Amino acid sequence: MRPFTYQRVATAAEAAAAVAGNPAAKFLAGGTNLLDLMKLEIERPAHLVDVQDIEGLNAIEQTGDGGLRIGALVSNTALAADERVRRDYGVLTRAIVAGASGQLRNKATTAGNLLQRTRCPYFYDPNLPCNKRNPGSGCAALEGYSRQLAVIGTSDKCIATYPGDMAIALRVLDATVETVQPDGTERTIPFGEFHRLPGDAPEKDNVLAHGELITAVTLPRPIGGEHVYHKVRDRASYAFALVSVAAVIQPDGTGRVAFGGVAHKPWRVEAAEAAMPQGAAAVTAQVFADARPTEHNAFKLPLATRALAGVLAEAKG
Amino acid sequence: MAFNTTRRAMLAGSGAAVALTQAPGAHAQSTGAGGGTPPSSMPVSFTVNGTAAELELDTRVTLLDALREHLELTGTKKGCDHGQCGACTVMVNGTRINSCLSLAVQHQGDEITTIEGLGTPEDLHPMQAAFVKHDGYQCGYCTPGQICSAVATLAEIRAGIPSHVQGDITAAPVFNAAELRERMSGNICRCGAYSNIVEAITEVANSDLGAA
Ligand SMILES: Cc1cc2nc3c(=O)[nH]c(=O)nc-3n(C[C@H](O)[C@H](O)[C@H](O)COP(=O)(O)OP(=O)(O)OC[C@H]3O[C@@H](n4cnc5c(N)ncnc54)[C@H](O)[C@@H]3O)c2cc1C
Ligand code: SF4
């Protein structure tokens, strides 16, 4: 690990200013992703701004319009266990408990979870080219082993996936991300616009500016329905998704669905949701119409259809 | 064309790989190519098993290394050092975490419990006694992490923390083998002593939680 200086801050504005003023600084929350990557020297911050003491970021509160505001520091365990989340936003609890391990969820925070970096094996191997780790160096995955990687929304610079589970549920729930920018002003980012596609700049996972601090994730008022999260993975627990499905299905068969493990961001095509009452294949035909899988990961397309079929069957009861 | 690796990139890359295989002591000296930030140290104090500890540590020292190398509490084990195996599991303020993925300086003022704090050879914690009775190990390397994790798992069930295998996510969780396997999945046992581990934890759970 490269040496770094360490600082704790008491307010969001102080945190944003401390990172914004230093191009080599990063926020530190639970540390479960950042420290992992620092040990491998994939992340090399020279200064860490620990946000754990910031007042008011560790609560889940009711909003004026009947939704919930989840502070950036709320742990994955606390969020999954919240009674209101379990009752009204079950897909979110389901997605969180399908990820990582009990130990990791105790330390992982809401903001840190959204910002976890890809699990592309070449991103983790400093001997091989990777445009995300080292912009302009090339992409070892394009002609490498791409079983886990993306099937849609890829570019000729990067075919990595966003690896997380929680964000797939937040996408289906139409969450928004609240931030404090380096100049102290706040902004609200709709969840669908938060994570980026790789395009020509795969080193940028999301739309945050350097020094922009996430303060909360907000859920709109509950929409009812059956909440389901299905995660297909290589072992029964403690593995990243090959394909995952987050869905909220209403009694009349209409609903919403987002997919994980298939793209550089949670993948949702709202227009395809009109086909929900016609069944899984009708939906995925539209959701994955522009898919460009590799020979190693083409299996993800039929898998996504079958996973959604399973979700629809479960929602019917 | 995907592999337009330059010679410089290859050299830089293999340099990083070499750094990874160096001893922790050697790491402390590496400032990285291009003259990065010099090593920085800070005071940190926390309580370990009820005893106050005051240390001056390089910011890079993990909670795991602080316990093992600086406080000589070597019961907590270093397995993968990347949060994947659970051998380093300890409890911080009553909650289990991977001590390898946490910096010591993040734990100013915290109360830490390690395997040494659960019980002693003369006065074993019920979970330690159950692992001995049921032979919940072979080589024993993962055992301190398994035991800390098991104690915390029962507390999490009591506290109503939901799990992936729960049928009704709004209901209070119950104790059974499926729940246990899911909740303990962050602790890997390379010898495969899982069935005895399940038996050991089940015995404690039955007296602890009064569950069937
Ligand atoms: C072995 C293993 C298995 C895992 N399995 C899964 C899995 O199956 N599913 C899954 O979803 N996840 C999984 N994870 C990932 C885990 O969920 C993340 O590591 C965790 O959520 C990160 O949260 P953190 O608070 O520790 O983030 P940190 O590591 O502290 O931070 C991550 C990033 O977020 C930035 N950051 C943190 N807080 C803020 C903020 N408020 N504003 C702006 N930037 C911020 C940091 O600068 C850093 O870049 C796994 C991790 C491990 C180690
Ligand atoms: S797919 Fe993306 S993350 Fe993986 S090697 Fe290519 S550029 Fe790097």
Largest sheet of chain B: 5 strands, mixed
Radius of gyration of chain B: 20 Å
Low-confidence stretches of chain B: 1-34
**Class computed from helices, strands and strand pairing of chain A:** alpha+beta
Could you give the count of β-strands of chain B? 5
How many β-strand stretches of chain A?
Answer: 11
Question: What ligands can be seen in this structure?
Answer: flavin-adenine dinucleotide, iron/sulfur cluster
Strand % of chain B is 5-15%
CATH topology of the largest domain in chain B: DNA polymerase, domain 1
Under the CATH scheme, which class of the largest domain in chain B? Mainly Alpha
Q: What is the number of independent domains of chain B?
A: 2
Low-confidence stretches of chain A: none
Question: Mind explaining what this structure looks like?
Answer:
The complex is a heterodimer of chains A (317) and B (212). Chain A has a 5-stranded antiparallel β-sheet with strand order 4-5-8-6-7. In chain A, strands 1-3-2 form a 3-stranded parallel β-sheet, with helices on one face. The mean pLDDT of chain A is 97. The termini of chain A are far apart. Chain A is built from 10 helices and 11 strands. Chain A is 25% helix and 18% strand. Chain A has 317 residues and is α+β, with helices and mostly antiparallel strands. Chain B is an alpha+beta fold. Chain B folds into 2 domains: 41-117, Roll (Ubiquitin-like (UB roll)), CATH 3.10.20; 119-208, DNA polymerase, domain 1 (Orthogonal Bundle), CATH 1.10.150. Chain B is built from 8 helices and 5 strands. Chain B has helices at 7-21, 24-29, 63-70, 115-118, 126-134, 143-158, 177-183, 194-208, and strands at residues 41-48, 51-58, 89-92, 95-98, 111-113. Chain B has a 5-stranded mixed β-sheet with strand order 2-1-5-3-4, with helices on both faces. In chain B, a hairpin with a 2-residue loop joins strand 3 and strand 4 (95-98). In chain B, helix 5 (126-134) packs across helix 8 and helix 6 packs parallel to helix 8 (194-208). Chain B is globular and about 50 Å long. At the A-B interface, strand 1, helix 2, strand 3, helix 3 and helix 4 of A face helix 1, strand 4, helix 6 and helix 7 of B. Bound molecules: flavin-adenine dinucleotide and iron/sulfur cluster (SF4).
